[in-house]
Amino acid sequence: MIRVHALAIHEIGEASDWYRTRNLILAEALEEAIEEAIGRIEEGPERWPKGGFGTRHYIMG
Predict the structure, then answer these.
(1) Least packed by Cβ within 10 Å: which of 14, 38, 39, 54?
(2) Are 40 and 58 in contact (CB under 8 A)?
(3) Model pLDDT, residue 43
(4) What is the pLDDT of residue 61?
(5) pLDDT at residue 54, as a whole number
(6) How far is CA 49 from CA 18, 21, 46, 53, 59, in A?
(7) Domain residue spans in the chain?
(8) CA dihedral sign, ordered 30, 31, 33, 34
(9) Among residues 54, 53, 31, 34, which one has the least CA distance to residue 42?
(10) Can you list the residues of the chain whose pLDDT is less than 50?
């Protein structure tokens, strides 16, 4: 199970809203990239570097 930190969810929402007011195509691309990242994490969560408190880090670039 993947849990996303509340601050990350907030940041994703703000970024999505920001892009939606400027460019719908970019907003949709961001949302697709996030969904893809979550899918990659689900496929192999142990591939990503360990963080504190039993977390893993996936950096989107």
Answers:
(1) 54
(2) yes
(3) 95
(4) 77
(5) 86
(6) 29, 34, 8, 12, 10
(7) 6-54
(8) positive
(9) 34
(10) none
